[in-house]
Amino acid sequence: MINNRAIKSLVTASMLAFVGMACTPTAEDINGPNIHILGIIEGNPVTVQGYVTDQTGIDAFTINNQFVAIDANNRFIVSIPSAPLYELRAVDTLGFETAETLARRDQKFNPTIAFRLNQSGINFMTEEMANSVNVSSFEDQIAGQEVLPEQEIDDGIWGTSFYMWAKIQSVSYSKPDVNLTLTDNEHFLMDMTIPNMRTVLVTRWKLCFIGICGGWNNDGATVTANSVHFTTNAGLSIVNSLVDINLANTHLDFNNLNYDWNSIGGGFENFVNGIIYAVQNTFVNIYIAGIERIAVPVMSKFIEDMPINTHVQNSEGERISSIILPYNLDTYNGGATIELKGTIFAPTIAGVPGPYLGSYYVPGASPQLTEVTNTGKSYDIGVMIGTNLINQAFLAGHESGQTTMVIDASKNAGVSPNGVDVITQPSDDIIATDKLRFRITPISPPYFYLTGNKDDQAVGVFGMKDFSLSYEVKRLGWPDWTALYSATLDVEADFTLGTQDNGNLHVGLEKLPRVVFKSFSNGGPIRLSPVFLNNMVRFFMPLAMPVVGATLDSVATPTIAGFGIKAEEFWTTGENNTHLAMAGTMVKVSDTATAPAPETNVNMVSNEAGPTMNESVTILNGVVTLNFSGINPSPGELEYRYRLDGSEIWSNWSNRATVTLANLLGGLHRVDVCSRTSLLKQDPSCAIMNFETKRL
Length: 696
Description:
Radius of gyration: 34 Å
Shape: elongated
């Protein structure tokens, strides 16, 4: 369903003049200095350059306890020994201190990810096991195997010998009942009962008397048991960075085992039965081996996706690589936890912005994933990720060139004279034939830290220091693009975390960022008003921040083969908020495939100017509010996500039903809204809202 509305946007210019925003001091300095790293020359020692700022002045600055001299402009350049971690400390003249730690790009964090499967998640494995030990699979394992090798059976009295051979032809039985129980010593106790077991044998036999033998007789037999009871102790361990499973103390018992021979009768039947029972261990061992050859792969496949070895490439060809491998396994409180260690890096470092000293690092011991969430809810599967790995991903994205970008009309139609018309003033010299673009070149990588929990979400701050933004124009008759304005900013924005459809992390940046201007230049040949420059930052930073934040999409999480994971709660954990935890339910991929799809609706709601009237709405300050709804054919609530103007970046899945879009550029806009059910079934068509913003 497509809705079209013409929305006229009355944009107010009420921000402070740009010059006033640049350097207004706070009333009282109660914070430590700000430390900025601008670049490095790699080697040992490594050469570092940057600057330190504070309102009251800098008293001391050290890197790994080495004093660093700063000049009259608070800048420095210093050579220091290469080290895994760099501790930066700055103290101002009032005694306030700032301490930051950066981790060199080659660090392998240990552990960096922990994965926990509770008993409710393991119960899915029991179902997979019961389905996998099916008749055809088991028959493939044991059919054709010899139960009784050809051998002579001598009665020892009358000189009569009996030769016999038997192998398995086919099996049949009812669906097994399987139970898997975790113990606290890294073991599964597996208990399987297979009812109504029936095994068909192919046999041949011949009779000899005083050395004279008759011919071979082709025959058969049927072996039945009311049930077969199989138990084993599955030991779990990590071998060569892979989860290894070994079975021990395996037992198999037949309940009421019977042989029914097709043609052997009389005294020979009892005679043969005695021999069969004598070699029954062979029969048992065949069944044990057959079940083990099915059971071990099922358990292994269930967790075979633990190792993470991925190479993510964006549309510009810039790559980020992840190598994260299991190294420790533990079972406690009714669940199994696998710890992984590894690193995320850029295989090729781009020329711009170049290498950096390290990623933002927060020291602290790794906590344990417990059997319940932060709010006390039980779950099937949980994942805990260190913030140091997340920041390493941001460093990798930065060094690969992903944070350096150009936003023009080909990427966002609002980057045009028509689009910026909503923020221009009469004095701004912008004409309809101009081509516009914004160039973004962060000097330092993005950083990320967690601040706490809100409801079922982990919240934190995403930011960048020395974020360079330039506004460029190409006018008819000009040979090249010309920068009309450039600024260096420190930017921070609050975020919530979610996951993509493939399970990778995704940072949701929907609130306006906080901007501190460090420097600016407005010396281009075209006149631009301070109001326009203020609004440019206010309107275009929300376009750039999600693109930079999309670097986090390279952080993969462990998955379970054949299952999707519906993340239901995110929370912050660990000393100093060092880890992000998330937990949820497991959904079989086959259930998702066969589930009915939802239908999505999106409608515009009332706004500051009053209720919607016909097809024309006046929206103050370019704010549009949309309501989401849908038809849900499955139990549970619908979740929604949206994207603006065809962006590759979607919002996080959420059960919210309303979203407010602010600071919209002029021109046509499109919002795509999709819904999904608790079974992870998505609306294949989604809903679309088209509208236009204009200056009144």
